[in-house]
């Protein structure tokens, strides 16, 4: 009995130490990013704004496929996509970029991608709050369906965690992945409903696109913010299970391959 209690205490201390390390490392990463970048958090506003202007010009003004309310529709998609893309890219490169440190210091390698994921989530939280203000000023006030925002954003975050950790696990073994990730994410952006509504997709393709959790969650998020619609509970549950499975697969991949990283060339 005594050994079991001692083991439990050791386990709790290790978890607390891990959480402290995660928090202070994230704080240090945010401060370092602010010091080395002139734009810093502002870039999270500038990039979606520039992309929104380009897509609005092409799809709405030139092709005429936008329709009423296309600007806020587009802004929501680009802000959320910016978070997802940045999280996957930053987390995916975290272990590979810290191989030299892994050779010198014995520490859980999972901390590196998690720091980037948490830092990007904090930055997104600030930008999303500004997005809500912009939507309110544009005539889309808060509504009761806002209560579903937290589970929706949490599921999107789980998708980013899963994608980022799976990439983080593989990139030290296959460094050339960094050359194709941006292209793959660009393709995924156009398959995730960032610039089009799921309702405008032909029925023959909807069942296939519905397997993309980012598309389903983004469509539900727009329904909440722009129309006050509650997400479909069954669809949200299905996507939540998919997102959780993806995140668990990412964690398992990193832990499984962790003993190999100290043996790789930095």
Helical segment count: 10
Flag low-confidence runs. none
Shape: globular
Number of strands: 0
Instruction: Provide the helix percentage.
Output: over 70%
Percent of residues in beta strands: under 5%
Give the SSE order as H and E letters: HHHHHHHHHH
- Give the termini separation: 45 Å
Domain count: the total is 2
Average pLDDT for all residues: 83
Instruction: Provide the gyration radius in Å.
Output: 20 Å
Largest sheet: none
Backbone structural class: mainly alpha
Task: Please tell me about this protein's structure.
With 266 residues, the chain is mainly α. It folds into 2 domains: 1-36; 41-263, no CATH class. It is built from 10 helices and no strands. Helix 5 (111-137) packs antiparallel against helix 6. The longest helix has 35 residues, at 2-36. The radius of gyration is 20 Å and the shape is globular.
Short account of what is shown:
By secondary structure, the protein is mainly alpha-helical. Helix content is about 75%, strand content about 0%.
Q: What is the secondary structure topology, with strand pairs?
A:
Layout: H1 2-36, H2 43-62, H3 70-97, H4 99-104, H5 111-137, H6 149-170, H7 178-190, H8 203-209, H9 213-227, H10 233-257
Helix pairs in contact: 1-5, 2-3, 3-5, 3-6, 3-7, 3-9, 5-6, 6-9, 6-10
